[in-house]
Design a protein that fits this description.
Layout (H helix, E strand, L loop, with lengths): L1 H26 L11 E3 L8 H4 L4 E4 L13 E4 L11 H4 L4 E6 L5 E9 L3 E7 L4 E2 H4 L1 E3 L3 E8 L3 H5 L5 E7 L5 E2 L1 E3 L5 E3 L3 E2 L5 E8 L9 E8 L5 H4 L11 E6 L3 H31 L21 H20 L1
Parallel strand pairs: 1-5, 8-17
Antiparallel strand pairs: 2-3, 2-4, 4-5, 6-7, 6-9, 9-15, 10-11, 10-14, 10-16, 12-13, 16-17
Length: 328
């Protein structure tokens, strides 16, 4: 009897544990459940829109300038057989973004059904060591800390549905491998698959450091983000929509921009050296170096010697006296 009661107690405990584990999952509505006025995104499929539609089975779309109360809808769609398995088809809703209204049996607007939105997804890579947007430089010094920034309008799911959208960051190594997690400076791994993005912008924090060359070899890494909520990326694989633009990131110790600058300056210096040497040679041969000989002897002076005029005057006087004596 004691053994049976013990078994019963064990069974009860097992049931309680199972209820605790499965209870929250059962209680939570799936992210595919759409309420009236919620946003739905082009590419989503498998949506349950019955709560948004109420008793109506048709939806209508009016151009922005149209008077909804007086005019007929510009476009109408019958959803009678798609209430619990609705797809926001790119072909069906292309050019018809914005509010879609429920239509009553008379074809008149009967309140909002849902809002069709074109998804947007942008990934940014930031060097938190020096606070720089890596995309501007295309390079990161080996050993710097890296964080990711996600900007997406899918964040509306977090407030309107049961859970935030899941975004996966793709990091492809130089040899083509794609990581599912990244290591920070301390070696702690962080998953980059199905990140729950619940605000905009969303920051991952510094979760990546390429300082260990054994794990992250030098070279070019390719990074992008994807969202496949309700298979939207499978149905609408458009860059900037369900997949972000790819970023190329060079991991190396020396700034490639500085390397290029030094090379350019060296080339300019060597190019100018030849004309300078040639110019100096021409000047040297054309203008001879002055000879170290004595300066030339100046030409004889045309000035008479000092006292010459006095001598001539004395001689003239003597001659005058001689002539005077002879006459006497």
């Amino acid at each position: 009897m004691t053994m049976i009661s013990g078994i019963v107690r064990i069974c009860i405990l097992v049931v309680i544990v199972l209820l605790c584990l499965t209870g929250p999952v059962i209680a939570a509505a799936p992210i595919s459940t759409i309420m009236q006025g919620n946003a739905v995104f082009v590419g989503e499929e498998g949506l349950d829109i019955s709560a948004a539609m109420g008793p109506d089975t048709q939806i209508g779309w009016w151009a922005s300038a149209a008077d909804i109360s007086r005019s007929s809808p510009t476009n109408t769609i019958d959803l009678k057989n798609r209430m619990t398995n609705f797809m926001v088809s790119p072909s069906e809703f292309d050019g018809y973004l914005g509010n879609w209204y429920r239509l009553n049996s008379a074809g008149k607007a009967n309140g909002s059904a849902f809002l069709v939105v074109d998804p947007q997804l942008v990934l940014k890579v930031e060097d938190t060591t020096v606070q720089v947007d890596v995309e501007l430089l295309k390079w990161i010094p080996t050993g710097d800390d890296i964080q990711f920034r996600i900007d997406t309008n899918l964040v509306q799911m977090a407030s309107q549905r049961s859970a935030p959208p899941l975004i996966t960051i793709k990091v492809q190594s130089p040899d083509g491998a794609i990581y599912s997690s990244l290591l920070n400076a301390g070696g702690t791994p962080t998953s980059i698959v199905d990140i729950p993005v619940n605000k905009i912008p969303y920051y991952t924090g510094s979760i990546w450091n390429m300082g260990n060359p054994a794990v992250y070899s030098p070279g070019n890494y390719t990074l992008w983000a994807e969202s496949n909520v309700n298979r939207m990326n499978d149905n609408y694989d458009v860059i900037g929509k369900t997949v972000s633009k790819k970023i190329t990131l060079l991991n190396q110790g020396v700034n490639p921009l500085i390397t290029k600058t030094v090379t350019t300056q060296t080339t300019k210096t060597s190019t100018l050296a030849t004309p300078q040497a040639t110019t100096q040679t021409v000047v040297s041969t054309t203008v001879p170096t002055p000879s170290p000989t004595k300066p030339p002897t100046p030409a004889p002076s045309q000035t008479k010697a000092a006292g010459f005029e006095v001598t001539l005057a004395g001689a003239a006087i003597i001659m005058g006296l001689v002539l005077s004596l002879k006459k006497e």
